[in-house]
Amino acid sequence: MASWWFDTSFRNLEKHIWEACFFATIWSIWLMRNRLIFQNVMIGTEEVVDLIKYMVVMWMKVKFDIKVYSIEEFKGYTVFNC
User: Fold this and answer.
1) What domain of life (predicted)?
2) pLDDT tens readout for residues 54-68
3) Dihedrals φ, ψ of 19, to 5°?
4) pLDDT of residue 18 exceeding 60
C-alpha cells in the first residue's frame, strides 16, 4: 500500500499533502497508543482525525512557507481530506 501511496502521480503540493497524511496518521496512532498505555487516557476517533489534519496543515505551512492561509482555509483544500 505504501508503494502505491508514494508512486501515485499528483501535482507537487498534492503529493506532499498525501505523504504528510500518511506519516501524520502513523504518528498520531503511535501517540494515541502511548497515551493509552502510559497515561491510561482514551482518545476518541474525532480527536485523532483532528490531530492528523492539524499536523498535515502545520507541516505543509512550514514546508512551503505558506503564511497567507489560516489552518481552516488550508483544510478546505480538496486534497486535504485525508
Assistant:
1) Eukaryota
2) 898 888 888 888 776
3) -65, -45
4) yes
Buried b / exposed e over 17-30, threshold 16 CB at 10 Å, is bbebbbebbeebee
Residue of 56, 64, 58, 63 lying closest to 82 (CA atoms): 56
Q: In this structure, which amino acid lies at residue 28?
A: S
Helices 12-39 and 45-63, axial angle in degrees (round to 10): 140
Give the pLDDT mean for 14-35: 92
- Over residues 40-45, the mean pLDDT reads 91
